[in-house]
Write a structure and sequence with these properties.
It is built from four helices and no strands. It is mainly alpha-helical.
């Protein structure tokens, strides 16, 4: 059972890494095409900004679980000198629990917004891309 969970974890990390990587590569390609179109042909890529916004959202939020798993967030050690050494593990656990509650609350708010967006039929301005699937993905990744 533990080996199966470890395999799923490795697969999940690989999938999120690839999702973030390829969305970032697509952003670069879109930006190059847009800039070349503007400078050489005086024709920007239609909807390029909207696509870059959507891909940036995917790239950033796909990386959040990876950074959290690797414990790669920035830590500000303001209170470490005031907390006795024997209570450091408790302080750390309380900080992790607090951040976990905040992430769950954010995920709930984004999921609620995704439902509202779906019910309203909200889309991007130019390309009319439906917004709720990406908002739902962000809620899951949070």
């Amino acid at each position: 059972m533990i080996k199966a969970i470890a395999r799923v974890g490795r697969w999940g990390r690989m999938a999120l890494t690839q999702l973030s990587l390829w969305s970032l590569c697509a952003i670069v390609v879109l930006m190059v095409v847009d800039v070349v179109g503007r400078k050489l042909f005086d024709r920007p890529l239609l909807g390029g900004v909207e696509l870059v916004e959507q891909l940036l959202l995917v790239s950033v939020y796909a990386a959040i679980p990876l950074v959290s798993r690797a414990r790669g967030h920035i830590n500000i050690e303001l209170f470490d000198t005031f907390v006795p050494a024997r209570l450091q593990s408790w302080r750390h656990a309380l900080g992790e629990a607090f951040c976990g509650v905040l992430m769950v609350a954010c995920a709930w708010l984004v999921a609620h917004h995704a439902v509202d967006t779906h019910q309203n039929g909200d889309t991007t301005t130019l390309l009319r891309i439906s917004l709720w699937p990406l908002e739902a993905l962000v809620a899951v990744l949070l």
